[in-house]
Each structure stands twice: as structure tokens, then as C-alpha cells.
Amino acid sequence: KMKIMLDHAGEQNIQTYNLGVSGATAQSKTDRPWKEQGAYEDLKKHSAGCDVGIVMLGTNDAKLAYWNGGSNYKKEYKALLEDIGETCSLVLVGLSPPSECGVPDCRFGNPDKVGSLGDDTCCADAWGGPDEAHIINEDLPAIQRAVAKELGLATIPFREAIGECLRRNQN
User: Fold this and answer.
1) Are residues 127 and 139 in contact, defined by beta-carbon separation less than 8 angstroms?
2) How much is the pLDDT for 27?
3) Residues in contact with 118: Cβ distance below 8 Å, sequence separation at least 6, in sequence order
4) Which of 79, 103, 125, 148 would bridge with 153, disulfide CB 3.0–4.6 Å?
5) Are strands 52-55 and 90-95 parallel, antiparallel or unpaired?
């Protein structure tokens, strides 16, 4: 999608690579660490031409099985961003959008909501229920902001960037 946006803006000679891996984590002791996926090697292959890296990892790290207060996520996410910073001239931290778990119009559970997954998998299982919603909705983005600040990196609030908050407030 980034390439489409840049093409529409009239930018020429820009190469984009989507190195996102569904289900990947910043932490190494999970079932799908991003650094063990082919995307990490792909990043290293393109290192000579990486001007900007936009990194958003954490939604899967916020699963109850991996979270444990978030301290390990913070440590490993910071190290990963530093590693990517050795490859890319500019690194931007994407803030994970909140899940809305525990609210009636949760994007995971309402099949009529734009962007919905149409099930309650997130809310009921790996990310906990309404009592644990603060982890993904508050604790995770707070750690992402703190790491970005420590490293002097700018953040991208994806929820706002895609207009979801605006649409929600207009309804």
C-alpha cells in the first residue's frame, strides 16, 4: 500500500518492501520471532538502499503467554530497532492500534465493523479478556513510545493515520 500511496503522490524511483510477517514478534522466545523469518534476511539484502524503515511489532508480543509485564518486549524491541537502524538511515516506530477488546464495537468481534476479523479470537483467547485489554490498548503503545523516545525515533500512530479514530468520532 505504501508503494501505491507514493505512486499517487508522483514520487518516482522509490522502491518499497513489505517485510511484515503475520503473527511475528519482536521477542525471540515466542513461536514466531521476526528475526527468524525470511523478512529479516530480506532486510539485510536491501541494506544498501534502505533509507526509511517503518517498524510495527508488538501486537503479538502483547499476548498473555509472552507479555509478562512487557520488560522483555521493551528490551528486545529496542535492540531490534537499533539493529534495523544500522541498516536503514531513518527508522520510524509504528504504534500498534488498540484492539478495543472489552467494548461493544470491538473490531475483532463485530463482523459489521470496517476492518473486523469477525470473531472474538483476540478478546477471548491469546490477548486475554476485558480485564487484560489494558495490555494491548495502553501498556503496549506506552512501551513503544518510551522505546522510540529513548532511541530518538519518531512514531507513527497507525490508528490515526488510517483515519479510524476520525471515522469513529464522526458516527
Assistant:
1) no
2) 96
3) 109, 110, 111
4) 148
5) parallel
Residues in the chain, total: 171
Q: What is the distance, to the nearest Å, from the Cα of residue 69 to the centroid of all Cα atoms in its chain?
A: 18
Tell me the pLDDT of the chain (171 aa) as tens digits: 556 666 666 666 666 777 889 889 999 999 999 999 998 888 888 756 678 888 989 989 998 999 999 999 999 999 999 999 988 888 999 888 766 555 555 555 555 554 444 444 444 456 776 677 788 888 999 999 999 999 999 998 876 655 554 444 444
- Cell numbers placing 81: 530497532
Burial class (CB in 10 A: 0-12, 13-18, 19+), 13: exposed
